[in-house]
């Protein structure tokens, strides 16, 4: 994974993605580079338009309670109350399921 990150960093900085540059980035992190992996990565990325691949990749954005509430128009306390109610419901379902199992093995 660190080799891909090194390539993405080089791309972002508009540097050539070659074996020497990736090796230098990996060394800068304190890791020891694997020459075989680096050669394979450089060969695999040779025909790839990284910018197009990044634009085509689905982006997931982690949502927080504040972000969710601003999107729905709810306030943070309302969102927290809804989350607590959902947690209680799931806990009750788990308890009911466990009670059903205990009656079988009783």
What does this protein structure show overall?
The chain is an all-alpha fold. The protein folds into two domains: 2-56, Arc Repressor Mutant, subunit A (Orthogonal Bundle), CATH 1.10.10; 65-105. 73% of the residues lie in helices and 0% in strands. It is built from six helices and no strands. Helix 1 packs across helix 2 (19-28) and helix 5 crosses helix 6 (76-105). The model has no long low-confidence stretch (mean pLDDT 80).
Query: Uncertain runs with pLDDT below 50, 5 residues or more?
Result: none
Average pLDDT, all residues: 80
Rough outline:
elongated
As for the CATH topology of the largest domain, it is Arc Repressor Mutant, subunit A
Please give the largest β-sheet: none
Task: Please count the helical segments.
Answer: 6
Q: State the separation between the terminal residues, measured CA to CA.
A: 50 Å
* Alpha-beta classification: mainly alpha
Strand content: under 5%
β-strand number:
0
Descriptive labels:
mainly alpha, Arc Repressor Mutant, subunit A, 73% helix
Topology:
Blueprint: H1 2-12, H2 19-28, H3 35-45, H4 50-56, H5 65-72, H6 76-105
Brief synopsis:
This protein has 106 residues and is mostly helical.
């Amino acid at each position: 994974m660190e080799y891909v990150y090194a390539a993405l960093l080089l791309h972002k900085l508009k540097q050539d993605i070659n074996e020497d540059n990736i090796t230098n980035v990996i060394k800068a992190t304190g890791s020891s580079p694997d020459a075989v992996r680096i050669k394979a990565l450089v060969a695999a990325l040779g025909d790839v338009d990284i910018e197009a691949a990044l634009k085509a990749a689905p982006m997931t954005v982690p949502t927080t309670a504040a972000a969710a509430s601003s999107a729905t128009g709810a306030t943070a306390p309302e969102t927290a109350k809804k989350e607590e109610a959902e947690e209680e419901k799931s806990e009750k379902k788990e308890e009911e399921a466990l009670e059903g199992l205990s009656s079988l093995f009783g």
